[in-house]
Amino acid sequence: MPVKNHRQEYLSRRRVLAATGVTGAAALAGCFGEDDDASDLLGGDFDEVDIDYPEDYEDEMNQAVPSGAVNPFNGEYIFNPYHHSWNSGDAQETMCEYLAVYNTEDGEFIPRVAENWEIDDETRLTTVEISDEYGWSDGTPVTAGDFVTALKLQAYMQMGLEKYVDPEDGIRLVDDHTFEIEPREDYVGLEEELWLNQWIETLLDVSETQFGPVVGEFENAESDDEIEDVQRDLVSLEPYWDQILVSGPFAFVEANEQYADQVPNQHHPIAQDFDFYLRHGMFEGEQGLKAGEVDWEHNDPTIEGLPDKYGEPPVSFSGQTFAIIFGRDDEYIRDYPAVRKALAYAVDMEHLVSVATPETPVDEYSAGIDIGYIEHFVEEDVLDAMPNYAPQDIDTAQALLEDVGFSYDDGAWYTPDDDEWTLHFPVGDWFRTASQIVSDNLSEFGIDMDHYVSEMPTWQSEHEANLDYDLTVHLNYGMARQYHAHADLYEEMYNPDRGILTERNLFGEEVEVPEVGNPDGDTVTISIPDALDGLATANDEDEAMEHATQLAWAHNQLLPAAMVHPWSEHYWVNAGDWDFDLESDAWLTSNRITHYLLEHGLSPQ
Hints:
Layout: H1 13-20, H2 24-29, H3 36-41, H4 57-60, E1 62-64, H5 90-95, E2 97-98, E3 100-103, E4 108-111, E5 114-119, E6 126-130, H6 144-156, E7 171-175, E8 178-181, H7 192-197, E9 203-204, H8 208-220, H9 224-236, E10 250-255, E11 260-264, E12 276-280, H10 286-291, E13 296-298, E14 315-326, H11 331-335, H12 337-346, H13 349-356, H14 380-385, H15 394-404, E15 407-409, E16 412-414, E17 422-428, H16 432-445, E18 448-454, H17 456-464, E19 471-474, H18 485-494, H19 500-504, E20 510-514, E21 523-527, H20 528-536, H21 541-558, E22 561-573, E23 578-579, H22 594-599, E24 603-604
Helix pairs in contact: 1-9, 6-8, 12-15, 13-16, 20-21
């Protein structure tokens, strides 16, 4: 009997630190200093990795200059994925490989190191076979033991997998190229795609050789306190760029005050034939593009005045959504879906997207599921019936407010209590341009806007943590790297920072909405927990789609947040000096992985 309780516990890296006692300003700043216990965890300090590469690569190979300031000289980056300050950015794109990656157009996972996997229909016991063509930067082969190490540590570090899998017994090595992963007994009924999403996109950023001893420490721990000791030691490890094995297509071989070089990993099946190396740290994004000196750049779609050799940037989905999020402080926003809808209709989302993220599609559903893959989970006729809040519709916005009892006088809106309507709109500085457009639209509509922008850490601590806003904008309205309707919708309902059923309380566990697929139909009741559990334990695709469709419809009708556009990565490529197949499906993968440019034909002209 499949379990009917899927209340996942979220534990971020910051919360791991708090749980293990690594707290305070020093921890958050990365100021651990020397930690003998951390070094002892791996049997001593990290040694420099001996990498096989052509020593005269600067003379023998072409030079490629990615945009960005990635330079790990003098400890600038800590190459420990469990460290609180780990923020690998472009370095991760080039240095790490995946078991598989998701393709948003096909709704399927594309094998990378994995060759194939078989899932038992009844128990969900999964056998994964990996390729024998991949190797670490020192020439040792990538093995199933490396993935077992990565998966076990993900679970022991309480990063989500532990909910579904017992790290000690549920992740097992079969042989050098085969491992098994099996859910806990309570989760044998997980819907197959949801089960896959828990582990299939594992990023191979640790090796068994270097991090295997940590697994042993966890498995030898005899109490919660001892487990926390190992967690504390692991988050404190601080290996440098030349002390870590990498599984991806490029490895650092030089880092100095001016630049850092990565050469092709001679043991990576794609990279071993590359005839160019990467020189990082030469330019900062827009600066390098405008100078015409960088070969590719991602994540900024709004740059103007570029040399002709840079074409329009292709877009790939990242599995997150930019959204207008409604708070609980304003009673009318909190209690009336019509008011939330009116605010959405009053914003010109199409204009916002054209300014802030040109070429990105506008979300026409606002259904709680990323637009990149919603069609794989929601019935087509229901998608077609959903009200689209994206085209600005001032008349509808006005009618909705008046139906609730608002009045409009001399260019201003007044609440049913005859108070001028003022909305508190604090925003983190990642979204300065987009939020200004939202604020301007609502001001023009007649709402007094208390809009201001703070540095993102300030916004997070002062506003997000306390839900101190009437509305705000942010990402992560969805679950990056878990491309499944359940992950998106569950996050929306139970996220500890702003989940509807944990913090914001815009509605309860049972909601009343018009008949699914008919905005003018009779009212029906949907139990959100039951629908989520049904989605999680569906026996087949049709059953999963039925539950996802109900939840998406409820989101569209109740609008706890107005989803504006997928958070996408825009890639500018120097088409003047480099060949690349712009028609390839590299852009349809949800991860911004530099070696996808490479696999699909990037080469010097």
